[in-house]
Amino acid sequence: MTIDVTPLGARELDALVALARRPEVVRYGAHLETDPVQTWVEWLGEADPNQRLTVTVRRDGGLACAARLTTVTRRRQCHVGTLDLIAPWDGDDDAIDAALAALVHAADRWMQLDRLELIAPAGHPRVDGVFAALGLLPEVHKRGSLRRDGKFVDEVVLGRIAPHAPPRGDVRPPAALPPKGPPAEVTLRPLEDADAEAFTKMMRDERVIWGTLQLPFQRTAYWAGRLASNDPQRIRSIAAVVDGELAGSISLMMHTAARRRHYGGVGMMVAPAFQGRRVGSALIDGAIEQARRIGLHRIELEVFEDNPRAVRLYESRGFVTEGTRARSCYRDGAQVGDRVMAIVGGRA
User: Fold this and answer.
1) pLDDT given for residue 346 in this prediction
2) In 3-state terms, what secondary structure has residue 204?
3) CB-neighbour burial class of residue 27 (10 A; exposed 0-12, middle 13-18, buried 19+)
4) CA distance 283 to 241
5) Could you give all domains of the chain from N- to C-terminal order, each with its CATH number?
6) Quick count: other Cβ atoms within 10 Å of Cβ 45?
7) Which residues have C-beta within 8 Å of that of residue 106, sequence separation ≥ 6?
8) Which listed site, 77, 108, 121, 272, has its alpha carbon 20 to 30 Å from 131?
9) Which of 341, 17, 326 is nearest to 165 (CA)?
């Protein structure tokens, strides 16, 4: 028996589709056996190694496993790469080991990636076997994040910090926030196209940038386009208004993959002048209410590990910390981690 690791390209599309549709592959994946061929055309992507590397493992001439390393394009996470597997999870470890080892080796030698991550079935023996041997260790236990066999099942986020990764660096606190003031009279309404200028002004503030993944010097035209193009079937954005002024906003983003449509993520920002005045509380309550109305089973968010005020707010609304992704983001000259927090089944 011989194992051969080679690049995976469009010529192997038919073999990839056949592999992906095998029942033992579908069961632990996030796809369906009925997904169209176009799904796998997009999975392969363009033949651009700056965006992704794809490899296949052949055993005795047949396709045994496919794996992909995708670089994160978001600027403050460009040191992160994500790994994906199309393989029989209960099959022979050798093929998966060979495919992942090839991609990890490529990342360590030739790419400026300090962090790799992979989502795996929680409790699967490979988590403590092949993955651990490659340095991929459990960081986050995501409750009810995938639907399998008619049930909501858990997954685990595995993370690996490269041996060559630079020291983490000094983590500096944000600019001083105003002390907590009296509760504001908050009105919630949909975030509208006409809010683009005020929204952009809020997003330019360094204290808002510090708590998000945004960049400075943003243009109104960019956010005007984003707000106008948001699909309400996928993104619901809520504005908080105080005395006629945009004080903050929150977005509820629903997953579109069939086996993940039961959960969504939230992202929130509050203008510094209104922080500590329960604007954030009103926004998160509004997002939770929307999520429950449309029947979401899981609501997830990410927050910097050193943002205790935000963590306390989310905990007060029932969010539970499921783990921390080490060095997952770049902020103010240093790599920092983010907590993953979630409400599952309508409660913590």
Assistant:
1) 58
2) helix
3) middle
4) 10
5) 3-161 (3.40.630.30), 187-344 (3.40.630.30)
6) 12
7) 53, 69
8) 77
9) 326
* Token pair listed for 38: 């176009």
Number of residues written out for the chain:
348
The position carrying tokens 């203008």 is 271
Smallest CA-to-CA distance from 304 within 181, 226, 212 is with 212
**What's 179's DSSP letter?**
P
Q: Which residue has the tokens 């989502």?
A: 119
43: its two tokens: 């999975």
Question: Rounded to an integer, what distance in angstroms lies between the CA atom of residue 49 and that of residue 92?
Answer: 28
pLDDT at 27: 93
pTM of the predicted model, to two decimals? 0.93
Vertex 159 angle, CA 172 and 335, to 5°: 15
Q: How far apart are CA 250 and CA 241, in angstroms?
A: 12
pLDDT of residue 348: 43
pLDDT exceeds cutoff 70 at 2: no
Encoded tokens for 311: 């963590």
Confidence of residue 28 (pLDDT cuts 50, 70, 90): very high
